[in-house]
Design a protein that fits this description.
Layout lengths: L4 H19 L12 H7 L3 E4 L5 H7 L3 E3 L7 H4 L9 H12 L3 E6 L4 H4 L26 H15 L16 E4 L17 H19 L4 E4 L10 H9 L9 E6 L7 H11 L5 E7 L41 H7 L5 H17 L2 E6 L15 E3 L16 E3 L1 H13 L4 E6 L2 E6 L2 E6 L12 E5 L5 E5 L10 E5 L2
Helix pairs in contact: 7-8, 8-9, 12-13
């Protein structure tokens, strides 16, 4: 029997609405991490630090990772009142990222003023970029309330539960617990009493809830700010004891500490403690602004009139600069370089870092309008008067610098590599899907395995063909692939 026309129309409308709803939602039981795009992007080795304003450039460069800082994953900003979650800000960030093919490393901040005022005293106010973290920044007072928050957070973005964000496309599987927890000074990101044991408690609690909620998830330590004499004991304790089992990926920062990105120091610590986790460098910045101090000097220089303070961590201000070895020299030496010289610095540093075992590298320099040596070296943008630091850049109002093309060529040539081998000083072989790409510079002769006709790509992506015996190397890196 045929349905009455009105009934049929009503049922069709209901069915259409249901299909639209399902199209915008994660299917119950589906695992979004199994999608082809997610699995491909996950294997990429390049990322940016806080690149939301610059997503069109991230896409142009072929980069698929971002570490927001401080990011929106802040307990007190999501749960402003106990028991009530407001996901709108986080959902917006996640949606913007996935619409641009970007996967997120989420930093969890276990701070809510309504919780911490129960058992902690206020700390000095953070610089304005980090005031959103709250007035306390210590371990949670109500641990059970914090656990409920972490569970709800992971469930919403894990991509494999019925409570996932509507329209979620790429899940969040990588969770960092706080940032630079060893650092002291008035602008500390975490205040423990004592510092090490309180951080270990937060790390373990967060790890256990995340793993119980999403066994596929990976936990990252709060990025190591430095491994100088003042900070190293903190990490020896955290990673030399039970904390090592709570960390799936080791993260370290290199803010104006030279081109080796602190990896020799981290590798030495890992050997000492018998650690074997993958290593990500999640903040990379080479030169130091005159507005911020070198290690051991008192912080506090103001930003220039009308300017914004940079998103860089507080430095330890309790030790003389001599305690930091060569850091002062390294920070001072990378300055007054030409764009060509900076292009070489970027490629040398990144290639050598991969050769030292780093798996992912997050460059700090794309979300700044002006290409200074301290911050962005990639684009120079004309920003409208009155624009906020959250407004996206207009690509039409931006000029790409030479290091932009050097970085793009680097990504084009070696991303998704399976392995890398150092053959000699300035000589690296990257294996990518069964083929080899050599990155070469310096004064050594070509590796003996490179013979015959080769394709040579310069630092900016210009290709040519040559016979290997006629190829001479310089300090400017080239990419060499054996033809045929």
């Amino acid at each position: 029997m045929n349905l009455p026309e009105k009934t049929a129309v009503a049922l069709a409308s209901i069915l259409s609405a249901a299909l639209l709803l399902l199209a915008g939602c994660s299917f119950a039981g589906a695992d979004l991490s199994k999608s082809a795009d997610y699995q491909r992007f996950e294997q990429s080795h390049f990322g940016f630090f806080s690149a939301r304003r610059s997503y069109p450039f991230v896409e142009e460069l072929g980069v698929h990772w971002e570490r927001p800082h401080p990011g929106p994953f802040i307990w007190g900003e999501i749960e402003k009142d106990p028991g009530t979650y407001d996901w709108s800000t986080v959902d917006k960030y996640v949606t913007d990222a996935q619409n641009n093919g970007v996967l997120l490393v989420a930093t969890i901040w276990p701070y809510a003023n309504w919780d911490e005022q129960q058992c902690h005293g206020k700390l000095p106010d953070m610089r304005r970029l980090f005031s959103i973290l709250g007035d306390y920044r210590a371990k949670p007072c109500d641990t059970e309330a914090y656990k409920r928050f972490v569970k709800a957070l992971v469930e919403r973005y894990d991509g494999n539960s019925t409570a996932s964000m509507p329209g979620l496309k790429y899940p969040i599987k990588y969770w960092e617990v706080i940032n630079e927890p060893e650092m002291g000074g008035s602008g500390t990101f975490f205040k423990g009493d004592p510092q090490t044991s309180d951080y270990l408690e937060v790390l373990q609690t967060t790890h256990d809830v995340i793993k119980a909620t999403d066994p596929q998830a990976k936990i990252l330590n709060g990025g190591i700010a430095s491994l100088f004499p003042l900070e190293r004991p903190f990490w020896e304790t955290v990673l030399g004891g039970p904390g090592a089992g709570d960390v799936d990926i080791l993260t370290i920062h290199s803010i104006t500490l030279g081109t080796d990105l602190q990896l020799p120091s981290l590798n030495a610590l890992m050997n000492q403690l018998a650690l074997d986790q993958p290593v990500w460098v999640t903040e990379i910045q080479y030169a130091r602004s005159k507005r911020f101090p070198l290690p051991g000097q008192a912080p506090g220089q103001p930003a220039p009139a009308g300017g914004e303070e940079e998103e860089v961590p507080e430095t330890v201000n309790t030790a003389p600069a001599a305690d930091y070895g060569d850091a002062v020299t390294l920070a001072s030496s990378l300055s007054n370089l030409t764009q060509d010289e900076w292009s070489e610095v970027l490629v040398h540093s990144f290639v050598e870092a991969f050769g030292r075992g780093a798996s992912k590298l997050f460059y700090i320099g794309l979300d700044n309008a002006t290409p200074t040596e301290e911050t962005s070296l990639l684009v120079s943008c004309q920003v409208k008067a009155g624009a906020s630091r959250n407004d996206p850049f207009d690509p039409a109002a931006c000029q790409r610098q030479k290091p932009f093309y050097a970085y793009k060529t680097l990504v084009d040539k070696i991303d998704y590599f399976d392995s890398v081998q150092k053959l000699g000083e300035g000589q690296f072989r990257f294996s990518i899907g069964g083929r080899s790409v050599y990155v070469l510079w310096g004064s050594l002769p070509l590796p003996g395995e490179i013979k015959g006709k080769v394709r040579v790509t310069d630092i900016y992506g210009q290709e040519s063909e040559a016979q290997a015996e006629n190829l001479s190397l310089t300090d400017s890196p080239v990419y060499v692939e054996i033809s045929g």
